[in-house]
Design brief:
2 copies of one chain form a homodimer. The first copy, chain A, is an all-alpha fold. The first copy, chain A, is 77% helix and 0% strand. Chain A is elongated. Chain A binds a DNA duplex through helix 3.
DNA sequence: ACGCTGAATATTCAATTAAATATTCAGCGT
DNA sequence: ACGCTGAATATTTAATTGAATATTCAGCGT
């Protein structure tokens, strides 16, 4: 039992050390030796807890995505918001989350690159989660009579397609945040005009 | 007069030779020597007609964008289409145009990269043109009573934001064409639901 | 036996240099 | 003088190799 506890601790210890390094120096520039040193162990010992460096990055990235999904879920499940407010909150949350991530610690984009290249399933799963959340949101709006639409899944897919722009760092660097916020707001108004029952 | 004619011919001769090379081997791999050889002249002589290699690429890219804008304009100005049909045509045209470009001759993406990196104004101008076309489309729909909306410019901006996805080669390679077409259709339905007067 | 390490090996990265290419220019033929 | 070229120069790309890093593994201490 004690050994199990210890293993879990070491896992998280490694992840925390690695995350700090990735954040400050980026995925590519941090070495297994540095991570192991931060944990007072040999580099070889890291491999008793993770298959390889990419798996460490994947675990950290997964935490990140889980956290993001949690934030978005809290918007979708916030009982104090109307469906329209939820949609706008969802879109702005996506924009701000992505924007802050690449503004505060641009080094983390290396993690995105690595996962996109070597763990495409993870990215696909995340997209699926967001699609599910949007479906919930749309269905709630429909059930409450606030929205009026033909197909929940097609509508959710359409919304996700429309907000894809806010996931691309390239685009996000083309405009200042205020402009992006205006674009997000314009887009929401457009979408809501079609969804809202009249 | 004869010399002027000749100069124009040489210009187009160079552009055609370069375009063929760029299409087959890509921008990066074609050399000024090869282009000049195709035109039966020295490499030095190319510089009497274009400042540098990038300018040749820019001229070709501009032709390409002009052509694309012409196609989109023909959709917007097609009197036989309703405003809704124009919007759907516009979106599908963008999708197909981009898709075919990178499917038929993926090497041309090197031109896009080069222009994005070194001629950002060109890209911005093209976005502006599309925004103008969408504004026309929206305004026509409003004038005819088919659409009902608050602001033409904000609506056009929202639509352009929503269809940005269809400009990114990365995204286009994530899904097969049929899936993209479904996404485009879903998106159009969503947008039109909000625009169409009821 | 378990959890770890140091040293060995395999892979990746980075600095160096050689080669290819872009660009310039003095001067040739008309 | 005009339109062009070959050769010279500047810049970029590609190949090489040495160093750094990831990964493996035999074996040590408990």
């Amino acid at each position: 039992m004690v050994s199990v506890m210890t293993e879990i601790d070491i896992h998280t210890q490694i992840l925390e050390a690695a995350e700090a390094r990735f954040q400050q120096y980026g995925y590519n520039k941090t070495t297994m030796a540095e991570i192991s040193r931060d944990c007072d162990m040999s580099a070889a010992n890291l491999y008793r807890y993770f298959e390889n460096k990419l798996d460490i990055a994947a675990a950290i990235s997964q935490q990140c995505l889980d956290e993001k999904e949690l934030v978005l879920a809290s918007v979708v499940h916030d009982a104090s918001l109307s469906a329209s407010e939820k949609l706008e909150g969802f879109v702005l949350e996506v924009l701000h989350y992505t924007y802050n991530h690449f503004d505060v610690s641009p080094k983390l984009s290396e993690l995105v690159e690595a996962m996109s290249a070597h763990r495409p399933d993870m990215v696909a799963k995340h997209i699926g989660s967001k699609l599910k959340l949007l479906s919930e949101l749309v269905e709630q709006g429909q059930k409450s009579g606030e929205f009026q639409l033909e197909s929940v899944s097609e509508t959710a897919d359409g919304i996700l397609t429309a907000i894809m722009l806010f996931y691309y760092p390239l685009t996000l660097k083309m405009f200042p945040l205020e402009v992006l916020e205006v674009k997000a707001t314009n887009l929401c108004r457009l979408l809501l005009a079609g969804l809202t029952a009249r």
